[in-house]
Amino acid sequence: MSLTLIHTERFAEHQTPPGHPERPERAEVMDVVAGRWKSRGVEVVPPSAATREQLLRVHDGDYLRRISETVGRAVKLDPDTYTSPESHEIALLAAGAAVQAVNHAMSGPQRRALAFVRPPGHHAERDRAMGFCLFNNVGVAARYAQSRHKEIERVAIIDWDVHHGNGTQGIFYEDQSVFYFSMHQYPWYPGTGTRSETGHGRGRGYTLNLPLRAMTPTGEQRRSFDTAISEIASQFTPDLIIISAGFDAHKEDPLGQLLLTDEDFVQMTKVLKQWAAEACGGRIVSCMEGGYNLETLGETVRTHVNALRNE
Question: Could you read off the pLDDT of 263-296 as tens digits, one per residue?
Fold first, then answer.
C-alpha cells in the first residue's frame, strides 16, 4: 500500500477577515501534520493549479470568469465567503491538489492519496461560491478521474462533514455515474440534505442523505454510517472512492453540534478502506473539507492519515 499527501504551505496565503473560522492557521496545522508524516517516509507532493478545462467540467464558464476577476482583490462573495488578493490562485491549487490525488491513487494497486487543502470545496455550486468554498474540489476530482482514467466510470463521493455538501450534490444530482452520500447535522447550514433528496432523472437513487439531529450519540451515528455504506455498496460498485473529509463533526468543533471523536473518524475510514478493497482495488482519494478547532484538528487529521496509511 502507498499513501501520498498533496500539500503546500501556500494554502495559508488565502486570507479571510479576522475572526473568520476558515482562517490561515488551519493551513499551518496541515503544515505540521504533513511535515511529521514526511519525516516518517510518507511522500508529500506540492500541487499544480487546476486547469480551466478541469474546472469547466463542474463549473460554468461565466462563474469562472467572475471568480477570476477577484485576482488581486479582497471581495465578499457571500455572507461567509471571501477572497483576498491571492485567493484565486490558492483555490486553483486546492482543486489541482484533488486532481493530483486522483493520479496518485491511480498509479498502482492499493494506492491512496490525501489532498490536504484549503479553501474547502463541497458548498461551491456550479455557478456560485458559498460556505467558504470557491471551487468544488471533489467534484473537479471526480470528473477528472472519469475523463482521464479509462478504468474509472463510477465514482462514490462520501461526505462526512458536519454540513451538507449542497454544491457536490447539485453538480451530480442527475448523474447515475457518481453516487453522492452525505452524513450531516440537520437542520443546520446550508439547510439542504433531507432524506427526500435522492437525485433527479437518470440520477434518481444515486444521492443518499443521512441527516442527523444535534447531539446524536456517537454509537448511533456510527451504526447509521455503517448501514448506509452497506446499503450503497449493495447497489453501486465504484471504481474510485472520494472522501469529502470534513472534521467539523468532531465533538470539540465550534461550527457543529455532533459528537464524533478521533476514533470514530478512524473507524469510518476503515469501513471505506474495506469497501474500496472489495470494489476498486483499494483506491481512495481523501480531500480536506471543514474542521475548525485548531487545538484538536491536527490530531484528528493525523489519525485519519494513519488509518489511510495502515492496512
Answer: 999 999 999 999 999 999 999 999 999 999 999 9
- Here the CATH number for the domain that contains residue 228 is 3.40.800.20
For the chain, how many structural domains are there in total? 1
For the annotated catalytic residues, the residue numbers are: 123
Q: Residue 170 has which C-alpha cell?
A: 447539485
Q: What is the mean pLDDT of residues 242-265?
A: 98
Q: pLDDT tens-digit profile of 41-57?
A: 999 999 999 999 999 99
> How many residues can be counted in the chain?
311
To 10 degrees, the CA torsion angle through 31, 33, 36, 37?
Answer: -110
Contact 271, 222 (CB under 8 A): no
Q: Find the distance separating the first CA and the last CA of the chain, reported in whole Å.
A: 8
Residue range of the domain that includes 276: 2-309
d(CA 186, CA 195): 10
Instruction: State the cell numbers at 202.
Output: 437518470
